[in-house]
Design a protein that fits this description.
Blueprint: H1 2-17, H2 41-57, E1 66-72, E2 78-80, E3 83-84, H3 91-97, E4 105-111, E5 114-124, H4 131-135, H5 141-148, E6 152-155, H6 159-169, E7 173-176, H7 185-198, E8 203-205, H8 208-215, H9 220-249, H10 259-272, E9 276-277, E10 282-285, E11 307-311, E12 313-315, E13 318-319, E14 322-326, H11 333-351, H12 359-377, H13 386-396, E15 426-429, E16 432-434, E17 451-453, E18 456-459, E19 466-467, H14 491-502
Parallel strand pairs: 1-7, 5-6, 7-8
Antiparallel strand pairs: 1-4, 2-3, 4-5, 9-12, 10-11, 11-14, 12-13, 15-18, 16-17, 18-19
Length: 507
């Protein structure tokens, strides 16, 4: 009897808490491309060689001075006592050798000041017998050397001895190590701090900018990994679409949908297919979307409001970053206007993703188009110009038009946004309009709280840009300017926008 009562309670629990089936999540993704091979050992070797060349070329006495480059791996991060966060490798270290373990150190050094004579040593923590129980078997030095292409693998306990010998054999050398932003504080404190105090080097530099200048241009292997990550992202957004459709079909039960349920679906699909969410997503209903980095994701979704989703996948170290706006019911006129405007602005910006322009060039064009349209709409004073005009537009779109994308979400931050875009660069284009209630005049009160950001991931080529995220579509009910036969913005505003966009000087 007690057992029957327990089963009955379990049935009630399941009916109450699993009101939506998981049919849209059941199969592993179908139709995805073949798993890319990833980064080859030869590519890792080429990356290290290119870095050495950049460092040597920056040296005024490159024939008489050797180089010593030190790139540490990240340490493990702990959620609480002995409980680890999922490990994420130091990106520059990962780029140069691909070894996925913490507390390692990559050393590159030249002999006779020549790039062809450089050597690479990967120092890894020495395994102890009892660690096998906790961390698994140690793969061995030879296996690590084969997978990374380094010349030699040693244990981290020998780093100090290696550095001492190097100093003895090289009276003139440049040290490339970022001591101001120590990636691994314990390694810096136990080894590098004392080495720096000795002052045996002739010059101290950081190679971070050089590494990032290499990272900003993606190889075919890297682009293949980004495309795979994008396929998973597309599937995650599609799963959300199906989930919403199923929820809407059962709305008669009056069960609310929460933002965290959207996040859970996306996380499930990413992990099911070998990836993970690249960052805490923004799942923001209505006015919450006007908070750019809203990540609480704990509120009920109002079907009358727009839902802004900013999410991406990380797959084998390469990320995507997508933003879409979903609607649950018919769009209001005001929602159509703002969505249509952001889409048109985005189209103009994407066309500028060529080697003729920089990210800042595109940003300045975005601010101009948005600001002039806001003046036409009545959100900004028509008399504003110059810096006041820019500040006015910035109030409604307070972020840049985009950023570089790759191994990090905000990739290669040391590479200037004034630099002309290079073929092989991947970047985001994400114009937005955030109509915070306190900024909206009363005669336009129906626009209050509308938040729209649309974000695409673009590959720069020698010719036209390639939209890597074009298949990550908004909901069918959403209006997409580039596919529509008629614009949902009134005719006068449409003519004004067309004129503004034509001023970019591009087709």
């Amino acid at each position: 009897m007690a057992l029957q009562k327990g089963f009955r309670s379990l049935s009630i629990f399941k009916n109450h808490f699993r009101r939506i089936s998981t049919s849209y999540l059941s199969p592993k993704l179908e139709g995805l491309s073949k798993d890319p091979s990833g980064i080859t050992v030869e590519e890792y070797k080429t990356r290290r060689k290119n870095l050495i060349k950049l460092c040597l070329d920056s040296e005024p006495w490159r024939t008489s001075r050797n180089l010593l480059l030190c790139v540490p791996a990240a340490p493990p991060a702990y959620y609480s006592d002995q409980i680890l966060y999922p490990f994420r490798q130091n990106t520059d270290f990962n780029y140069l050798c691909g070894y996925p373990k913490p507390n390692c150190v990559l050393i590159l050094f030249t002999e006779s000041g020549k790039e062809e004579n450089f050597k690479s040593i990967l120092f890894v923590p020495q395994p102890f017998e009892h660690q096998r129980i906790w961390d698994g078997e140690f793969e061995g030095e030879d296996s690590i050397a084969r997978s990374t292409g380094v010349d030699e693998v040693k244990f981290t306990k020998d780093i100090a001895s290696f550095l001492s010998t190097f100093v003895t054999d090289n009276s003139k050398f440049s040290l490339w190590y970022n001591y101001q932003k120590a990636v691994n504080p314990d390694f810096h404190k136990s080894v590098m701090a004392d080495f720096l105090r000795q002052g045996k080097y002739k010059k101290l530099e950081s190679c971070d900018l050089f590494v990032q200048s290499l990272r900003v241009v993606k190889s075919p292997g890297e682009i293949a990994l980004i495309r795979k990550s994008m396929e998973i992202t597309e599937a995650a957004f599609a799963a959300v679409d199906h989930m919403i459709d199923e929820w809407q079909s059962k709305r008669s039960k009056n069960s609310p949908l929460f933002e965290y349920e959207i996040q859970a679906v996306m996380e499930y699909v990413c992990q099911l297919n070998g990836g993970r969410l690249a960052y805490i997503p923004v799942i923001a209903g209505g006015n919450r979307g006007t908070t750019i980095h809203y990540v609480q994701n704990n509120n009920k979704i109002d079907p009358r409001e727009l839902l802004l989703i900013d999410a991406g996948c990380e797959y084998k170290g390469y990320t995507t970053d997508i933003t879409r706006v979903l609607n649950f019911s018919n769009l209001t006129y005001e929602q159509k206007v703002i969505i249509g405007l952001v889409q048109l602005v985005q189209e103009a910006c994407i066309q500028m993703c060529t080697p003729q322009y920089s990210l800042n060039d595109i940003y300045r064009r975005m601010i101009t188009i948005i600001g002039e349209y806001l003046q036409v709409m009545g959100f900004l004073d028509l008399k504003l110009e110059g810096k006041q005009f820019d500040r006015g537009a910035d109030r409604f779109c307070p972020h840049h038009v985009g950023h570089y994308l790759g191994m990090d979400l905000h990739d290669t931050p040391l590479v200037s946004k004034e630099k002309k875009l290079q073929p092989g660069t991947v970047l985001t284009i994400e114009p937005g309009l955030y109509l915070r209630p306190e900024y909206i005049p009363e005669n336009l009160s129906l626009f209050k709280g509308i938040a729209v950001r649309l974000e695409e991931n673009i590959l720069v080529t020698e010719k036209d840009p390639i939209n890597l995220s074009e298949k990550v579509s908004p909901r069918e009910k959403s209006f997409l300017a580039r596919d529509a036969d008629e614009c949902m913005i009134d005719e006068k505003a449409q003519r004004i926008i067309a004129k503004l966009i034509s001023n970019t000087g591009i087709k």
